[in-house]
Write a sequence for this structure.
């Protein structure tokens, strides 16, 4: 019998767990994965669990496994900011769910802990790209501009580390990165004393430079399509790089097509920042496509449909 800590492998998941365990230490088995590996709860056999903590993964995507744990009367503490679906009503479940667009799981945990480890909550918010919420939350810390930028960089790098199609793509498996931050109550000490920050900083810089050296495969006034090779760097950087492209060209829609080992393309679409609509409509025209209005994707676009995708992309965003 053992306790389990289950968390998303990005900055928000790691910083949420870190705050909680600084306040309430517990010897638990860790369950996590790459950022998009979110069906994590099913890895637990209910009869082997004494208590389960779940952070920053959608309840909707884990509800069957959650029901099994609750049916076995396993106490579950659940904090998250994704749309939860129907939250099970059970005395063994403690749920802190807040889907406000300016909230992340690290900030939810911070609220529960009354700012006890606020620096790590600010790091989480930067990691989830919630820059104004991060700065607002940081106010009681009276940080200098330089210190705030360091936390922004730490959050960005921990978030970047979570992207990849498998753990092999990552610089640090998320549980390893969590173990590295675990001894540090103060993120500035982690930045100074652990080599992880420098390793991620170098990886990020080099991956971003490689991404920037790739010209648009096709572009118009209103859209740009980039094609990335089948290479770990492309899988690591695609999320943060498309965010940067969108910030730099707020009136333009962006699509990033990453070649997969099987010859298909993984497609990420970002609607223009100044008109966040249409990404889901475009992607749903293709099998394995889906997402939200502002950000959507296609999991496996057959290579011979890249031309058809480009035409649909252009149609969707030309105005
Ligand atoms: Mn999150």
């Amino acid at each position: 019998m053992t306790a389990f800590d289950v968390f998303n492998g990005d900055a928000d998941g790691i910083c949420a767990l870190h705050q909680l365990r600084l306040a309430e230490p517990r010897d638990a088995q860790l369950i996590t994965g790459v950022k998009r590996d979110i069906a994590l709860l099913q890895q637990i056999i209910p009869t082997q669990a004494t208590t389960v903590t779940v952070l920053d993964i959608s309840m909707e995507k884990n509800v069957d496994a959650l029901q099994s744990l609750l049916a076995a009367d396993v106490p579950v503490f659940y904090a998250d900011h994704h749309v939860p679906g129907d939250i099970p009503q059970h005395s063994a479940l403690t749920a802190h769910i807040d889907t406000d667009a300016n909230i992340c799981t690290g900030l939810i945990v911070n609220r529960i802990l009354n700012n006890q480890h606020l620096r790590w909550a600010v790091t989480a918010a930067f990691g989830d790209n919630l820059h104004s919420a991060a700065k607002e939350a940081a106010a009681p810390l009276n940080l200098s501009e330089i210190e705030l930028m360091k936390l922004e960089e730490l959050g960005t790098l921990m978030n970047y580390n979570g992207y990849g199609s498998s753990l092999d793509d990552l610089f640090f498996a998320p549980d390893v990165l969590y173990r590295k931050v675990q001894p540090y109550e103060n993120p500035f000490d982690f930045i100074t004393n652990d080599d992880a920050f420098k390793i991620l900083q170098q990886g990020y810089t080099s991956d971003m430079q490689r991404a920037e050296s790739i010209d648009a495969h096709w572009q118009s006034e209103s859209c740009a399509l980039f094609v990335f090779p089948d290479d770990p760097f492309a899988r690591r950087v695609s999320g943060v790089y498309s965010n940067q492209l969108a910030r730099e060209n707020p009136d333009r829609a962006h699509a990033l097509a990453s070649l997969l080992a099987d010859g298909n393309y993984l497609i990420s679409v970002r609607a223009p920042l100044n008109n966040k609509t249409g990404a889901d409509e475009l992607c749903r025209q293709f099998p394995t496509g889906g997402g939200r209005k502002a950000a959507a994707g296609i999991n496996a676009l057959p290579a011979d449909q890249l031309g058809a995708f480009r035409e649909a992309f252009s149609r969707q965003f030309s105005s």
Remarks:
- DSSP finds twelve helices and eleven strands in the chain.
